Fold each of these.
Amino acid sequence: MRTAYSVETVRAAERELMARLPEGALMARAAAGLAAVCAELLARGRGRVYGARVVLLVGPGDNGGDALYAGARLARRGAGVTAVPMDPERMHPGGLAALRAAGGRVAASVPGRADLVVDGLLGIGGRGGLRPAAAALVERIPAGAAVVAVDLPSGVDADTGEVAGPAVTADVTVTFGAYKPGLLTDPGASRVGAVRLVDIGLDLDGAAVALEAPQHADVAALLPVPTASSDKYRRGVVGVVAGSEQYPGAAVLAVAGALRGGAGAVRYVGPAADAVLARFPEVLVGRGRVQAWVVGPGLGSGREAEVGRALADTDVPVLVDADGLRGLDAGVVRGRRAATLLTPHAGEAAALLGVARETVEAGRLAAVRELAGRYGAAVLLKGSTTLVAPGGGGAVRVNPTGTPWLATAGSGDVLSGLAGALLAAGLGGVDAGSAAAYLHGLAGRFAAGGAPVVAQEVAAALPRAWRSVRD
Ligand SMILES: NC(=O)C1=CN([C@@H]2O[C@H](COP(=O)(O)OP(=O)(O)OC[C@H]3O[C@@H](n4cnc5c(N)ncnc54)[C@H](O)[C@@H]3O)[C@@H](O)[C@H]2O)[C@@H](O)CC1
Ligand SMILES: [K+]
């Protein structure tokens, strides 16, 4: 897992470490790591550090201090380094002295040309959007300069990934000690570029994880593998309640996802049986014993009773998606014994929370936590960085494999079938949701290969995604 910790947790670990180290030691480690990444970028971009034009955007706190000390290191290697302060009266004094001693200079405005801009305006001490003085500097970042963000892009909230107003968009973010949730969650995540983690010696063992991003090995460990004693019931039968006269395709796609999710069998319940069977003759039709239900894709309106029937089966895991989420009763969900996984997109989440869609998009992490808390169930919030929150609080999972190509009709239906198959195999709500999102994202990338993709191709690419995760 790639783990991210809250600002509060990082600060506590920093305090503990600082108490044992000479003053300035942590900042020196941070600056050394930052300067090394900057030097690497300059060497890659223009062959050498010597003679490079480097601009430091310097805020009033320690984030600016990191930038100044790193700038001093680059100046000692022959770069021309100019620091531009947000507030000339408030610059880290030690950092400023180091930069000056190394031959760097301070200017009131951002130079028109630069090879590299170091964003040291705000780090984990930043609150709210960039104020006008900082925003004015960001606007002047010269076109063509590589942008390296110190700890996080200024204007991105470290804990939530929220971006209130203007913010830096970095090519590389050099973060210290630990990932912060805002680096992995949109809208912040799309501002960070490549993330480089610099070890400054923080001890976070046993600290509460705020957000975690599974990697191949984590997902591989979750995926069910049939054994010699498996039969179709042991592998899990998924019941899919989906599709309508108007949306038969949703049924086909949800079934496709379920079949490729390792289910022993898929049972289809609904009015699109002909369409489903024409495509997948292996599907069972009609009610019967299942190990998990998927309800909702393409149901249309007026089908609440079918959703209620699945949820009433309180010992069987249920995934509720799309139309099934309409007016979903929190009391019913909370009363269930087996896992429940809700898989809304931002619009559906907004409707459940009674807020505007934009509110969910701007505060995705808060929204998914709030929904999971209200329903006491795992919630998977779809989007560019899909999030999965546990019903009982604790670490939220963020999916690192997503691709914008997956924003295509029917893609969510495939995901719900896939996650339902994993529920049927015995995974809990968060594990099923996050493993499904991971495979689905990979399949989307494989199927797209940089070109538009349709949902059935995503389903068809799922076996390749499984294989790549297991390799
Ligand atoms: N604490 C530590 O041990 C270490 C901290 N490090 C660096 O220190 C940073 C945190 O430093 P600070 O706590 O000084 O905080 P920051 O440097 O992130 O910023 C705090 C300052 O910015 C101002 N500010 C806050 N929000 C603003 C806004 N929206 N617009 C304009 N000004 C705003 C505040 O008034 C405050 O003066 C980290 O992100 C990291 O870069 C590193 O040197 C590693 C070690
Ligand atoms: K920054």
Amino acid sequence: MTIGVDDDESAFPRLEDGKGLEESWLRICARLKGEVGEVEYRTWLTKIALGPIDGDEITLLLPTRFLRDWVRSQYGDRLSELWNQEIPSIRRVELQVARAGDPAPIPLENVPSASTATPVQEEVTPVARTAPEVRSDLVTALDSRFTFDTFVVGKPNEFAYACARRVAEKPSSVGFNPLFLYGGVGLGKTHLMHAIGAELIQSGNVSVAYMSAEKFMYRFIAAIRSQSTIEFKEQLRSVDVLMIDDLQFLIGKDNTQEEFFHTFNALVDAGRQIVVSADKSPSDLSGLEDRLRTRLGCGMVADIHATTFELRISILESKAAASGVVVPGKVLEFLAHKITSNVRELEGALNRLIAHANLFGRPVTLEATQEVLHDILKAHDRRVTIEEIQKKVAEHWNIRLTDMSSARRARNVARPRQVAMYLAKQLTSRSLPEIGRKFGNRDHTTVMHAVNRVTELMGLDAAFAEDVELLRRMLES
Ligand SMILES: Nc1ncnc2c1ncn2[C@@H]1O[C@H](COP(=O)(O)OP(=O)(O)OP(=O)(O)O)[C@@H](O)[C@H]1O
């Protein structure tokens, strides 16, 4: 594919096949967002704008020198790799500080999630960075940070960890082949796979191929196009350990599934080890062929569960210690309490705190944490429902839940109802008419009156204000 400059009025050149660079950029943004997590993406990558393309070089623009240097050091290689996957003729990514009038970055809300983004173009041949210790040229570089030593073990992941260690020590043991690791997003599946790979490579002359299912598919397609499927199959079937990450990507990709199935059988029959990860168990991966699901479930299936508070604390402690920045225990507890979604997001939040501390030379305090992570914390605020509010308020003042929507106007019922409306306005994003509907189809002006009245009373009556605050804190925690 060649790249030419369109003479239309678009701010960016277009590819000859009519596909805009913006489309490629959007896909790359979606990929990056999926890879680094929304927190990290929002912190560092939303500020990048697409600049011009010149020969084999594409320019990306950043608003400040600091951001340019940071993005270059942390994400430079990955950006080049992704651009090269999108448009193979692009070999270099130049990062520059933007000037007035340069294009703006893509707003975060316009970047689709990786799973919904249109896949990169098919004729992609991913660039494999080969680790020197490894024989096979199929290996994508393993991330040296992802080792067993840096993996924090707790109840939710101890079984998966033990299985991974076992495979790293004795690949192809009966009962452990294939090893199928599954669990939600950002809980450590990739980390464990890389740790297995690193351990095996260190232990001796073992060839390990690790790649995402997506990469597997692109390589397969590239091999078909270049009529080199035999070499591709031979290469794959010559490794001692094959690891495929995020297998759910193959759902609906029937030909690639078929190829994977044959590779899988050939390797297992030859006594080689397979390690696979996915977001669901083999039996729940509907959309994969039955025979493949059956084979995937034949070895060891290990689930990584959602993190517990204790595990989140241990992970934060370990990562904070490794960073060399002192993060007080109460800040770690606060983060572990607030960011419960997955380890990637938790890590992203901590990294941001650490980067701020390093940048401004200020100690990490709870106040600073709330300020620096304001947007993330807001996004993770627990969603309280109006029903929960009604229940808590009714319990607190010992009235019947049905009185929240009844027509009774006695003060001992009407006042708690007003408080519940007030809290619904404060803690949910529902509109006044929506709140009114939940309180026995009351009019929005009634809700407005309740909100004003409660605000007024809180200013006049300290005990009442304390009650309302207490309820708010209980509902928010
Ligand atoms: N138990 C853990 N100890 C230390 N770090 C962890 C742990 N679990 C996850 N992480 C870190 O969290 C981040 C996300 O983990 P990883 O990429 O392995 O998740 P994943 O389960 O493969 O997610 P996805 O489904 O998105 O592929 C990585 O930086 C990883 O090092």
